[in-house]
Design goal:
about 190 residues; mainly alpha; about 0% strand
Length: about 190
């Protein structure tokens, strides 16, 4: 009996979602195809009927993860009454919740260092997705892209450092300082 229409796309989506979560939590190199497939509730034998290679999956996972983050941030903005709405994004992005849930968070701080050593194809996709994120931040903050880039860069840097250390007080302090700086940049 054949699969229902759309079955292959649903399975592919499950694989991409599993990969995005695994890559955010563990990096690209430390995540195997069987691990990703297991996370999607599938056996690894079917991977190549959906993807040519792991690199293609990394590219799709980057697109998916940024879209996921943008949707989450937009939902938070849409529910907020305060202005400027960029403050909602800053507060969420530099929260302990976002810091502590790497597997569900923004893929940009999670993978930037590793992506820098990846193939040109993956770096191109990551570049496009970073531009999308900067455009979202810039538009929401009412800034030109140069200032929006600086704002987002400071947010990413604060989050990366806060995740990197084992001192909870210093980590919280980095998030707090990052929020203060980002909001001051918006108001300047």
């Amino acid at each position: 009996m054949p699969y229902p229409k759309g079955h292959k796309m649903k399975v592919r989506s499950k694989i991409v979602e599993s990969a995005a979560q695994a890559f955010r939590a563990n990096g690209i190199q430390d995540v195997s195809v069987p691990f990703i497939m297991k996370g999607a509730g599938l056996t690894h034998g079917g991977f190549y009927s959906h993807f040519d290679n792991k690199e293609q999956l990394v590219a799709e996972a980057c697109r998916y993860a940024v879209s996921d983050t943008l949707a989450l941030l937009q939902e938070a903005v849409d529910q907020e009454k305060q202005d400027p709405k960029i403050n909602v994004v800053i507060d969420y992005y530099l929260s302990t919740h976002h810091r502590d849930r790497t597997e569900m968070g923004c893929i940009i701080p999670a993978l930037s260092v590793e992506i820098a050593r990846s193939s040109e194809e993956i770096r191109e996709i990551f570049t496009q997705e970073l531009k999308r994120m900067i455009m979202f931040i810039s538009n929401l903050a009412g800034m030109d892209q140069s200032k929006g880039s600086a704002l987002f860069s400071s947010m990413v840097g604060s989050l990366v450092l806060a995740r990197s250390i084992n001192d909870p007080e210093l980590s919280d302090s980095l998030l707090s300082a990052g929020k203060q700086y980002a909001k001051a940049l918006v108001n300047s």
